[in-house]
Amino acid sequence: MGFYDYSVKNAQGEDVSMKQFEGKVVIVVNTATGCGFTPHYEPLEKMYEEYHEKGLEILDIPCNQFMGQTPGTDEEIHEFCQLHYNTQFPQMKKSDVNGENQLELFKFLKDQQGFKGFGEGKAADMMNGLLAKVAPGYMSNPDIKWNFTKFIIDRQGNVVARFEPTADMAEVEKCAVSLL
């Protein structure tokens, strides 16, 4: 199966087929409203506004699996994003990205682009320290490690990149724009 064979539920519980994004560059991101990385919504929205007409789509999939940082309902999450970041890109139903109840789409994405580390710098050191305590062995599996992990899919449906939340958002943008 490929990217276009999957679907996810939107906040209203309706199926959204990835097929509708065929021919577009897509960023799939698991998000949270109460995380230190929540300000990533701002550059994501800026990218959406600047490049949507050129073929960029962003799929926001809220997830509450990382220290309960997305506790609200789908409606409350949407209201938060509108109020604080004026997001316009599609927001899906709050879902699991790891484990027994994970979305099949995320299993596919992780199989295509596994975890390669958090990189270097203060945020990377913080994440490595935290996960060494709460998730020993985290380096040895492809699971999503935290909120705001981003996958970039090219116009042909290939998963070309995975950016951890510690990645510079300018690098995420550079990658996405190079595919437009």
UniProtKB/TrEMBL annotation:
Keywords: Oxidoreductase, Peroxidase
An annotated GO BP: cellular response to oxidative stress
Active-site residue list: 35
Xref: Gene3D superfamilies: Glutaredoxin
Any one Pfam family match given in the protein's UniProt record, by short name: GSHPx
Presence of the UniProt keyword Aminoacyl-tRNA synthetase in the record: no
Gene Ontology molecular function terms on file: peroxidase activity
Entry keyword Oxidoreductase: yes
Family annotation (PROSITE patterns): GLUTATHIONE_PEROXID_1, GLUTATHIONE_PEROXID_3
Annotated PANTHER family: GLUTATHIONE PEROXIDASE
Family: Belongs to the glutathione peroxidase family.
Name listed for the protein in its UniProt record: Glutathione peroxidase
